[in-house]
Amino acid sequence: MSDGAREGGSAMALSGAGAWWSDPGLLVNGDPDHVWGLLDSGVGPGARLAAAVYRASAYVHRGATPGVRRQLLALDAARYGDRDLSARIGAVPVEGEPAARWGVDWATGSDVDARFRCGLTGHTGEVWAVATGVMDGRPVAVTGSEDESVRVWDLATREQVGEPLTGHDGAVLAVATGVVDGRTVAVTGSSDGTVRVWDLTTGKQVGEPLTGHTDWVLAVATGVVDGRPIAVTGSDDQTVRVWDLATREQVGEPLTGHDYAVLAVATGVVDGRPIAVTGSDDQTVRVWDLATREQVGEPLTGHDYAVLAVATGVVDGRTIAVTGSDDQTVRVWDLATGEQVGEPLTGHTGAVWAVATGVVDGRPVAVTGSYDDTVRVWDLATREQVGEPLTGHTGAVWAVATGVVDGRTIAVTGSDDQTVRVWDLATGEQVGEPLTGHTGAVWAVATGVVDGRTVAVTGSDDETVRVWDLVTREQVGEPLTGHDYAVWAVATGVVDGRPIAVTGSDDQTVRVWDLTTGKQVGEPLTGHTGDVRAVATGVVDGRPIAVTGSYDQTVRVWDLTTGKPVGEPLTGHTGGVRAVATGVVDGRTVAVTGSDDQTVRVWDLTTGKPVGEPLTGHTGGVRAVATGVVDGRTVAVTGSDDQTVRVWDLTTGKPVGEPLTGHTGGVRAVATGVMDGRPIAVTGSDDGTVRVWDLTTHRQTGPALTFPAPVKAVAVTPHNTHLTVAFGHDIAALSPH
């Protein structure tokens, strides 16, 4: 064993709970379960920071090698703004592995949050539903997913309990927990139109599925009526149904009144009577007396779009409902009077898909999850947001539940990113000094030089473009705004001696930005009739041009001096154009494009004609293209949904060697550069890794770099000094050691 590894191991045994946070060897080489047990034992800012850094990717650490943990912990320390801790972690020796090849220079921390406690992974589809409960004295979360399974998680140990519960033939869209005959059960609703009851102790389905709904079951809640446990379900069939969980029979006729799908259900008690509250695609909230099965009063109106989420709670002794909507607002209703309480709660920038209520430090709160990837906490007494949004999910937050673990109120959230996250709602202090930036997923990165400074330019789901100084790690100026939808593509270039960026967006426009002034140059370039997902720059006949690819299946060329299109659109692809790069072949400027039609095409930008036949071989959409030079020959490197990387000789139109394999997810990003005098390709994937390939030998160089979220974009700086990676809402700059 190396001295460093032995040092980490002995620290694990001897340090106790008093010094673990100052020992990077323990964090890297220590058993993750042991380290996890120490995280709440430290005192002071150093301990809090180390605990937050470890938790940031804790769901990866348990199954990772020490080498992968070293790289992730160094990255997460940088995300929290502690470059010294990042460097010390990166220098920890790991037995049987070489020193880290890449160092983390800096990273943004938009996705890190001190309130994050742990992540639970296992689902292979979007997590649509979450509920909490107590099973055999242990706090648990129950989750339902697009993968058709239900999973149970021990919230104290972070372990999945037993095998997944299977039986549904469609996505599990709704989950609630309850107690029947003294046993904790879960009740689930699915796109298969059934409701199922599960004994959480045995992991077995209880009886046959409950049938009656004629469409997807979108919502489930549990309650008690006349001493009997019941479930209330809402469906795409516009009805609400009540089920006796002891007999597993439907109680009475369906409750009707909603004009569209019933998307949300909650139960509660008003003036001693059990009620259900439902939200619908018809924009209304309705209250039902579960004893009489009659609607109570008029529908509650105010939301401008579908009501997606409902929860009930108590504020100042009065039962309230909290609703979330496609109109991006949260509303609070007094269920005794049927009146809205105060103004809508605003802040989310996407539809509010999930709501739960709880109590934190004696105060009633609502916790909401949104399509904007964030979770927000609201004080229901003051109707103010509590602290900053909880960030970390890299997809829409579809589900929220609250519970109590070790006396602390927690929220459990499920997301489009296939993860379940647990948050401590009482932890509000700032930890570290994270550099924040984008508030949405970062889809694009390009690098360039402005006033002698090497910069990265990023485009995001938050509709902004940002410029970052890669040496000082500061954002340069204000965000560049103007696009009305997500910015999916960025390229840099020079026009009239000035550095510019060209961006493409889901708003179907292309925009040009002066990177010195931070201003848009001229009017948007319009013509595409679909989302613009790819941009590259180049020079044709001495004039700077941009080449753009769109979901409208066309490629367009623009003169960046005049802002005018050059010639007619280039047509031939039969699917959306996702990737564009430019290069020079035999003295002529070409564009290389990749498409959802699984082909790569080469275009002569002087004539506007295709060069040769399409390049075929990929068995999935082509998501990324870059060009480079290997042994004096221009090549294209392409990444695909088929998880492979391919290299093509652009002179012959033939593939060079076998596909490069290793990624276990779609390859979304490709960049080329030179390292140690050898041409390389850098690829990023949905599998959360970045791989570096030697284009001469066609071999991967060194181990994959692991990131805590899918990698959306990569860029290599002009002087090959930095690698910039976009993952989740964050970016990181790395340099070779």
Describe the fold and architecture:
Keywords: Repeat, WD repeat. One of its GO terms (cellular component) is cytoplasm. InterPro entries: WD40/YVTN_repeat-like_dom_sf (IPR015943), WD40_PAC1 (IPR020472), WD40_repeat_CS (IPR019775), WD40_repeat_dom_sf (IPR036322), WD40_rpt (IPR001680). The protein has 7 helices and 56 strands. The protein is mainly beta. The chain folds into 3 domains: 98 residues, no CATH class; 309 residues, YVTN repeat-like/Quinoprotein amine dehydrogenase (Methylamine Dehydrogenase, Chain H, 7 Propeller); 211 residues, 7 Propeller (Methylamine Dehydrogenase, Chain H), CATH 2.130.10.10. Strands 49, 50, 51, 52 and 53 form a 5-stranded antiparallel beta sheet that branches. Strands 1-56-55-54 form a 4-stranded antiparallel beta sheet. α6 packs antiparallel against α7. The radius of gyration is 27 Å and the shape is globular. The two termini are 24 Å apart. The N terminus is likely disordered.
